[in-house]
Amino acid sequence: MTALLDGATELPHLGVIRAQGADAASFLHSQLTQDFAALAGDHARLAAFCNAKGRMLASFIAFRRSDDELLLVCSRDLLAPTLKRLSMFVLRAKAKLTDATDEFMLRGIAGPSTQGLCGIESTPWTMRRCGEADVITLYPADDQARVLWVAPAGAAEPGFPALPLDLWRWSEVRSGVATLQAAVAEAFVPQMLNYESVGGVNFKKGCYPGQEVVARSQFRGTLKRRGYLVHAQAPMHAGQEIFHESDAQQPAGIVAQASPAPEGGSDAIVSMQVAAAQGGRLTLGSADGPTLEMLQLPYLLLEDV
Predict the structure, then answer these.
(1) Which is nearest to 187 in space by CA: 33, 59, 13, 47?
(2) What is the pLDDT of residue 2?
(3) Longest C-alpha distance within the chain, in Å?
(4) N or C terminus of the chain: which is more exposed, having fewer CB within 10 Å?
(5) CA separation for the pair 199, 190 (Å, rounded)
(6) CA-CA distance, 298 to 293, in Å (whole number)?
(7) Angle at 162 between CA 118 and CA 137, to 5 degrees
């Protein structure tokens, strides 16, 4: 039985980077995997910041707050190094990047509480202004709606029942859309976490760091790992290795994001060799570790664009 999600919770594991200035959107367009030049006020973007080898340094949910201000929501444990690295590339651009975490309230709202919330749509990454807040539709978890609510500090709370943070963290995993954490920074190209299938990569935009590697992975068939959902009766955490029975020495994958499951054990998004996902015993941590059960992804993978 799927746990019922309903209510709102604070999101202390996330932080906010503000990009402000006349060139803020064009600067982000040149650095991230998504199109920010054409970003309208009714949509958000899932995007990755990559190094020159196409490996993800951070991931964001980003949106316009005004004509010259964009907010980027990311894992809090990656905010400081990401802000420092991004700022190195601003150069002469009319853009200023700052840590704005303390200036905004981040809430996750799920289940029936989302119904009728300022006319939000069910399509992921659509956005509505709701009073002082911006409300972004996320991918659902087990068909239960989820939204990200972002408002200035001190704004009125959403006014819904309290949702335990553990349940929200579990819903993040069950949505199949990973938020990159420090433990796995530089471990994946975006497609290893299915970002091309959930709106996190635009292959028609201009260059950005790592763009050639990301594009080659997509169009030349060089990608051998994808993101999958798994369950274990043991605790899991980001950075743990996954083994397949065909090779007891070399790991077949790595845990990208994990959470305790409401009915026991843990669920996780893992990035794993495609061949290993096609059958055979999977274990956590070592060849003799706890067995992993493959779960169904909640969306289809794009084989082409």
Answers:
(1) 59
(2) 62
(3) 56
(4) N
(5) 11
(6) 16
(7) 35
Assigned token pair, 156:
């009125």
Short-list 6, 36, 8, 7, CA closest to 23: 36
List Cα–Cα distances, 289 to 145, 244, 266, in angstroms.
Answer: 34, 11, 14
Closest CA to 39 of 131, 137, 125: 125
Q: Please state, in angstroms and rounded to a whole number, the distance separating the CA atoms of residues 248 and 244.
A: 7
* Rounded distance between C-alpha atoms, residue 305 and residue 302, angstroms: 7
Question: Strands (DSSP E) along 67-170, which ranges?
Answer: 69-75, 96-99, 104-110, 127-130, 133-137, 146-152
Distance between CA atoms of 31 and 28, rounded to whole angstroms? 5
Strands 96-99 and 133-137: what pairing? Answer: unpaired
Name the one residue in this structure whose structure tokens are 């068909």.
Answer: 143
Q: What are phi and psi of 251, to 5 degrees?
A: -65, 145
pLDDT at 216: 85
Q: Is the pLDDT of residue 303 over 80?
A: no
| Confidence band, pLDDT 50/70/90 cuts, at residue 222 | low
**Helix spans in 95-241 (H):** 165-174, 211-219
* Contact between residue 208 and residue 30 where contact means Cβ atoms under 8 Å apart: yes
Total Cβ atoms within 10 A of residue 40? 8
Smallest CA-to-CA distance from 110 within 68, 143, 156, 66 is with: 143
Q: Are 240 and 252 in contact (CB under 8 A)?
A: no
CB 106 within 8 A of CB 10: yes
* C-alpha to C-alpha distance for 205 and 182, rounded to whole angstroms: 27
State how far the Cα of 196 lies from the Cα of 300, in Å rounded to an integer. Answer: 11
Q: Which two tokens stand for residue 182?
A: 């420090």
